[in-house]
Write a structure and sequence with these properties.
Layout: E1 7-15, E2 21-30, E3 35-39, H1 46-54, E4 61-66, H2 76-79, E5 82-85, H3 97-105, H4 114-120, H5 136-148, E6 154-158, H6 166-181, E7 185-189, H7 193-199, E8 202-207, E9 210-215, H8 222-225, E10 229-233, E11 239-243, H9 247-253, E12 259-264, H10 268-276
Parallel strand pairs: 3-7, 3-8, 5-6, 6-7
Antiparallel strand pairs: 1-2, 1-4, 8-9, 10-11, 10-12
Helix pairs in contact: 3-4
Bound molecules: adenosine-5'-triphosphate (ATP).
Adenosine-5'-triphosphate binds next to helix 1.
Amino acid sequence: MPDTPAIEVQHLTKRYATGHTAVSDLSLTIARGETVALLGPNGAGKSTTVEVLEGFRSRTSGDVRVLGTDPARATRAHKARVGIVLQTSAEAPNVTVAEQLTHFGTFYPRSRSTEELLTATGLEAQRNTRISRLSGGQRRRVDVALGVIGYPEVLFLDEPTTGFDPEARRQFWDLVNGIKREGTTILLTTHYLDEAAHLADRAAVIANGELRALAPIDELGGAEARTPRVRWRDDDGLRHEERTTDPQHLVRSTVTPMHDLEVIRPSLEDVYLEMVGADA
Ligand SMILES: Nc1ncnc2c1ncn2[C@@H]1O[C@H](COP(=O)(O)OP(=O)(O)OP(=O)(O)O)[C@@H](O)[C@H]1O
């Protein structure tokens, strides 16, 4: 059924045994081939949501489908269509990179060759290196190689570049963009807004277990949130602030002196922080 959305979440609620509601009435639909970034402060409910979608966690109520299947009732055939890159890696430390990739390939009905994966992840030079000897960034690449080994139609990436240096992060983005171009649907959890801006078609902002926004990154918060602000002090030292799409006009048409004049264009971070408010 190619018309089925890749991911469909309707009114998902998860209440833990502690009584804490981690996710509350969350609904979102992700089309096939789309990359969506899940953003939100610590404790917002991102991991809980993703774990329900991965089939690792039960839900209290609501309907969830991944490739048309309820992950709570997933068969082996369904699991083979989904790639998961968790925050913590599960590789065997004493085998080499090539051995690990070849071994995992046997778990899938159709798998990428070890050579293709080594090239795609830039790990050719480490093919005979034991996993325990890899740097954190190299290990993360192995994680991703294992996540995409079975040609997944949906890929879950949970904070994939935490701890990366800026260059490694850029290389990793190239890798993910390549996977994206193959038509893979990606749900990416990240705390880096620049990562979301580079990789995602849309971002879902979650705070306090609730979906606050789901929109293309450059439309998050709506036009109002992106309207520039003009700030100044008058002769008496009083502060003024106005939002306007035409700061030049405002400045020209103000007849009284404007001191400490500033024009502030809200950044993605400003828009995000305003959206998550006191939860950040
Ligand atoms: N097993 C659990 N039992 C009880 N409460 C939990 C459990 N796991 C998570 N929580 C709580 O549910 C809320 C949401 O947690 P979750 O891990 O989904 O947030 P998150 O958005 O992924 O946060 P982070 O960005 O820190 O990873 C938090 O208040 C957390 O303390």
